[in-house]
## 1
Amino acid sequence: MIHDGLVALIHYGLYLIPGLLLCGLWFGLVPRTQPALRIAILLLTFVLLRDAMTPQGLWSLSRDLQIGFIANPFVLAALGGMSLGLIALLARLAPELWRWVVLSKGSPLAGLAVGLATGCLIGLPLRLYQGIEAGAIAGYWRWLPGMLVLAYGANALEEVLFRGFLQGYLEQQVTALRAALISAVAFSACHVFLALTVTQLGWPVLLFTLLEGLACALVRMRYGVVASTVTHGTAILLIAVPMSG
């Protein structure tokens, strides 16, 4: 499992190198006095990281929005852990952006509860519609711990970018509600390439990501990025299954 996982991760990393070098150079050349452009570059880089997983066989998306992830839990845990590492790196390399990240607002316990409930409201109906039965899926329970790390680790990175950097920056320019709406639309728009070319599934992906993005943005507005990460991670976890073959 570990050997095969390392091979998959190395192939993924090599595949990303040209794009990451260009995005890194672009980000480094843009002065810190241009935060909006630097945020846009980071969002583009995240889209690259996410969408490159499809041709590398790390995940897939079905027409009923069921997400299949590689069945190797080591790979999933490694990707989730690397996402958390990238968050730490961004906090060090871009403190001028990190100052807009609101990790928690109000009661932390209330935020976690609302985040979990909202994630269930998004994910459970789809899980029931898709007929996901954990006991009937071979290797599900062995796969689940790695998926937990990926669901909350990788989506923590996504939430820091969209609800931390972008939404936090926008709140300095417009009202909090408008910033949340812009963040939600931007989140869905950053799935256009995935929806129309990578998977060719079209509007269902865009509608789902718009609703998911709006839910996460509103949770972030009230309770902060930690709560919105719980929302996002829970929703994805509920509709995820191990890929077969």
## 2
Amino acid sequence: MDLYLLLEGHSAKSEFPAYIAEVLALKKEFAGRIAVMLGIEADFLPQSLELYREIIAGYPFDYVIGSIHDFGGISIYASCNIYLRIANFENLV
């Protein structure tokens, strides 16, 4: 589950409570047999750090994966060509 999608009003926002409930139920069901862990991906958005902290603190996450989808004001989603330039470290200056 991506925390950024939740903040942006994506359809994932309505699925978030069900995701949390399902993972916690699976943790109980499989306790002692497999390790089921609750996690979330959190894109780095400096303007949203406090909000991220509040959301993350409100749930029993086992881990939070940090991510960066914007570099130097360029979104890696903007186009494949831009992503390839970043991946190849071209034209970054």
## 3
Amino acid sequence: MVYIPHIRGHKLTAYLTTTSPPSPTQLSLIHSSFSLGAYSRFPTPIAELHILANPSYASASLSHASMRRAESAAGSSAPFLVIDDETLTDGGVWYISDFATEDEVEDGEAESTDVLVKIRVRIEHVPVMHVNY
């Protein structure tokens, strides 16, 4: 017999930047898609999704880089997700990591430390990608 304790998964925060608030059905679909990946290999989730509506991020003119800077200024270095209008149609979210480091610039992986490391990924793939990234 194998005992797998209930361990909380990584907490991932997702910010809504949609032009209009998603319906409860759309939010439920986002959560259920995320859960497909979170429970894909284990009986306990490998990640937890927390969707927040930060009014300062709701502006369509606010860039992902500005959001990352604001999060860093608030003391958070954790990656976060951005749910935008396309999420509701294509099922993808932006996974925002961090700005390139000096080592990445020296190794030629980025042009400068102003380069934001981000990727568009389907919601159900986020949990596995996050724990392996």
## 4
Amino acid sequence: MKPLSELAAALGMSYTFAESWTQEYGNAVLSRWPIKHLKVQKIFDDTDFRNVLKAMIEVPHVGEVNFQCTHLDHLDKNWRMKQVGAIIRSSDSHHILAGGLNSLNETDYSQERWTDIIKYYEEIGKPTPKVEAMRFLKSEQCTDAKDFAGECESVVVIAKGQSLQGTCKYGMRVDYILASLDYPYKFVPGSYSVLSSKGTSDHHIVKRKHQTVVKITGTAPPSKGIWTTNTLSKVE
């Protein structure tokens, strides 16, 4: 499927895609290593046109890495909470969850900035922004990749009263990379960053690295395996 297939070819990666309500809209995972197993499921139930794409990736010298990509509802808070609850209940192994969660994390903003965000949403006719989905994920002790932030790309502006770069055209963070409580690998300190999509999308690219120490038998010293994950989502 173009342009996804062209992007994967240019990067030398394999990819998988799960369409949502149209053939060219959905969730995708690209990997430089083999994608061994796939599962696509409606997020909440069969009436939900959105899905979560689950991929098991075989990383050399590391083993299996479980990766989940999704895009939650952007209008209905109650439906979004059902979706995020269903994702947690259906996850039976350690994993990374990445994508457009369409929920704000209240600790990213000062009270003044939060008031400005609510006012702005009212002016453009969008529903009042909610934090319940991210609050729930934090209660599940998910690790937020932004806690390992590095240098900011200057073209992606940080609004006054906001502690980090926004990921969408409205200036807020709605795209996340989260590790489950039992995730066995570590984020690399200083590796989280937001890169400008340079006008090709209404969202920016969120990037971070994993790190794990791998034991090597014999006389060779231990080595570190490091890999990178990017997520680029499109808001509706």
